[in-house]
Amino acid sequence: xxxxxxxxxxxxxxxxxxxxxxxxxxxxxxxxxxxxxxxxxxxxxxxxxxxxxxxxxxxxxxxxxxxxxxxxxxxxxxxxxxxxxxxxxxxxxxxxxxxxxxxxxxxxxxxxxxxxxxxxxxxxxxxxxxxxxxxxxxxxxxxxxxxxxxxxxxxxxxxxxxxxxxxxxxxxxxxxxxxxxxxxxxxxxxxxxxxxxxxxxxxxxxxxxxxxxxxxxxxxxxxxxxxxxxxxxxxxxxxxxxxxxxxxxxxxxxxxxxxxxxxxxxxxxxxxxxxxxxxxxxxxxxxxxxxxxxxxxxxxxxxxxxxxxxxxxxxxxxxxxxxxxxxxxxxxxxxxxxxxxxxxxxxxxxxxxxxxxxxxxxxxxxxxxxxxxxxxxxxxxxxxxxxxxxxxxxxxxxxxxxxxxxxxxxxxxxxxxxxxxxxxxxxxxxxxxxxxxxxxxxxxxxxxxxxxxxxxxxxxxxxxxxxxxxxxxxxxxxxxxxxxxxxxxxxxxxxxxxxxxxxxxxxxxxxxxxxxxxxxxxxxxxxxxxxxxxxxxxxxxxxxxxxxxxxxxxxxxxxxxxxxxxxxxxxxxxxxxxxxxxxxxxxxxxxxxxxxxx
Amino acid sequence: xxxxxxxxxxxxxxxxxxxxxxxxxxxxxxxxxxxxxxxxxxxxxxxxxxxxxxxxxxxxxxxxxxxxxxxxxxxxxxxxxxxxxxxxxxxxxxxxxxxxxxxxxxxxxxxxxxxxxxxxxxxxxxxxxxxxxxxxxxxxxxxxxxxxxxxxxxxxxxxxxxxxxxxxxxxxxxxxxxxxxxxxxxxxxxxxxxxxxxxxxxxxxxxxxxxxxxxxxxxxxxxxxxxxxxxxxxxxxxxxxxxxxxxxxxxxxxxxxxxxxxxxxxxxxxxxxxxxxxxxxxxxxxxxxxxxxxxxxxxxxxxxxxxxxxxxxxxxxxxxxxxxxxxxxxxxxxxxxxxxxxxxxxxxxxxxxxxxxxxxxxxxxxxxxxxxxxxxxxxxxxxxxxxxxxxxxxxxxxxxxxxxxxxxxxxxxxxxxxxxxxxxxxxxxxxxxxxxxxxxxxxxxxxxxxxxxxxxxxxxxxxxxxxxxxxxxxxxxxxxxxxxxxxxxxxxxxxxxxxxxxxxxxxxxxxxxxxxxxxxxxxxxxxxxxxxxxxxxxxxxxxxxxxxxxxxxxxxxxxxxxxxxxxxxxxxxxxxxxxxxxxxxxxxxxxxxxxxxx
Lengths: 598, 598
Hints:
The complex is a heterodimer of chains A (about 600) and B (about 600).
Chain A: H1 4-10, H2 12-18, H3 27-33, H4 59-72, H5 77-88, H6 99-102, H7 110-129, H8 137-160, E1 170-174, E2 187-190, H9 195-211, H10 219-238, H11 242-251, H12 253-263, H13 269-298, H14 309-312, H15 315-332, H16 341-348, H17 351-376, H18 378-383, H19 385-404, H20 409-428, H21 433-464, H22 480-493, H23 501-515, H24 517-541, H25 559-577, H26 580-594
Antiparallel strand pairs in A: 1-2
Chain B: H1 2-16, H2 22-58, H3 63-69, H4 78-92, H5 108-120, H6 144-151, H7 155-158, H8 175-197, H9 214-229, H10 235-253, H11 259-290, H12 311-328, H13 336-343, H14 346-370, H15 376-397, H16 404-423, H17 430-460, H18 484-498, H19 504-519, H20 521-546, H21 570-581, H22 586-596
């Protein structure tokens, strides 16, 4: 086991890259930098300096005018920004949406990061212990929705306080429940990479609760399962500790297993739940093996300390480490030979469960690839690039060709999500600024789009209890709103420009061209196939003549379902039209990750 | 003597009284046993508290008093005193710190004094007896006037004398575990009583044999024997206790006179006879080599000085281990376990799986660490081999079991195999292997006990006689329809037994595997692959509880569980939630495990 001092001395070459000079990780200085509340005073330095606003031709005069205007009409700052951008047409300057939230005086925000889990735990135990006579299902639904929305608002506030112009980890917090055991310190920090995943989780859970509004079977246990999944996802996206990430990664299996098994639709749900659990368990066991090996050799789990492990390991050990990480995340993504559990689980799960699965749980795999295999082992990931390219290419073409001949609606979209996630993996392993940025953006976009598609299919299933495509056609005549939304989401799924998936796919393609032209050329085939199956699906489902032989009563989407879809549509437009706003937050941390490949 | 008198008294009533009512006699004997057990718990708890307070609160914290009272320390310098205190604090956690430069400048006299004090030290740390080579089992040498009142009255005449009192045959090392055992026994008896006393109205509808007054007496006798086994230092005493325990267990198993129970009792009898014979042969060989039967003074090491171990001694050791493995149902001697557990009633299986195994496991640890410490190179490979094969047999044997108790027998085999394997790592790291094996063992016992208690509580909820309850294949089949609260608790316990992360069972396995990684990483991979199969087994239980829709007509026996949540059963909630909350106090748990050896 290496001592902490030895690690520090080995990491001195790395310090200037990660900008840890301001906060050294030595134990004594470390304690000094933290205020008594456990709030690290970083991330507020460069708040007023906006590099995008430095116009070269505007000169001094314009800036002065702008400052005066700021002083006078500070309340209308985002409007002014838009005005500026239209006036000079240099490039689109993103309005600061959270300007008014920023005007709130500084609270101890890092408290929020540990405040969420406590809210979750209190609520879960409240649900667990209260009698059924005291809490009706109606009140329970309302209370749970309100709490999830409150958590979403908290995360928005945290996002407003997030400083985009650093690559450092922000909002450092030591949790109050800290077992100081085997270097098991629970540090929670947020990076530019992880901030949007946190927002996505807090955004999707109220939608899941809205979707499962009419469930009556064991409602409180369903809500407990959803909140547990959200809780563990927030932990997974906000730790710097490998062991806690693993714990969150694997403990999501229990509530998801129960969701598929109990609230699933058909009798095959048991097989599907087993497939889901055991596939991911086999993957995570290799991850666990890696953890034990790292702990026994280096003595820490904190990946801030483990940045230079690649230089200290032998070739054989490096390859083994990388392969074990790969097994864990390739099952979760899922990549080609390990993808069999995903369509089964999607088909058998309830709609809310499949939304959770597609939009959030698959992203853990991509996040893990970014954080662990690319960040900790850059050279070996370059070494294994051909393997990944081949597997991803096979996965993309194979899954999109199988999606073409599916009869089940959910299975089709599951295969399409496999294709998209494989494309994302290609973007991560392009080792470019553009590719990695695009992969993160595409993960967010896919999280929104796939959840919308599953939600709409759930609407159909609730009406008619059938998911086979051959029973439906010509829905545009009887369900106009539904068919409009469905068409909208299919267009986003095939990366129509101006909608959420387009910037991500474009950036990944650019990054792949920078990496190797031939790889980019082959992936275009897969992109083409995605357009094919999505338009084919839209054509069969929405257009054509109406089939009245099996179903005679049609009802368009209700108000509840409309309000669960509407925020997703709003977000797709935002992501498609103003992608710069998202790039701004991610860019610095991606650049700091890429310094390893120089 | 007390027990015999009691039994004869009630047998007189049984045979002579004309208006004989078994109800009344049973109730009297039952409440007497509960009273005796409670008194035993109180006594053991007080003794344990007294020892811990003597060695920790008075002398460990207030060192000046300690120096004043003992004449040896009166002439020491301040420096050496400081060093002494410092060393004490080091020994407290089982770690020897390096000496700083400030303390290295000592004169020769001081160094001698420190050296002598360090020789004496182990006396003042009775809970760390298993760390030191010198053995101070008879702690009452320090405090003879207070403790000898428990055992002999000779000190009134002539102070302390090393004659053969009863006190020489007993040691005081496992008092915490004894209290633990007594509490478990009270829990079990209490739940057993609820099955009968709740049904006073239809008392005679029950099987006649379950109400006999001998039942609690045999129960108490076996608990008493388990407690005696934890304090025996003489091998003849050990043999007698083993036989007494097995005799009372034969009676308990065969109490309901069915075909199943009698078969189980005969099987257990033959196995027990074989094991006691093997153990007796082992004791004989020990006596042959060292001419004593006291475990403290067994000198098996003397043969080693001639660099030869006699085959006779070796075979004796192996036969002793085989006798122990019979009781623990470990690899070569495991075949009786599933049949016996299946045949006997639920309460007896609970007793066999928890209390008996605790007693024998801790006796084994005592024997290994006092007598067989230098012979680790003989027994550690034996333990690793037999433990590993019992893990394999337990995991693959439980795959195709259709009855719950048979299933539990196999899974407990795998769990105990793991903890025995870690004991076999004694040569690698003597402290941690013992600690982690005990940790894993105690956590498994804890969770399995809660599992049984919930089943018993399910029994108590009924309002009808429980015929044929024990012949159902899985009495938890479709439990969620009858009592969702209990089924939730059961799933938590099952998952912690399976070792899924946020629960306690994961952490014990993590610690063990991190030890094994130093020994051989390949074996860790094998164990993890077996862990997948083991989790599959446990998930089958979850499936049986939650995913099955049960028709009431065929499963009318499950009406036992139909009841809403009651505040009486909230202690079960608290016990299961400890699986989550104790995770945050892991370090404290493992530090204080050393107290358990006291």
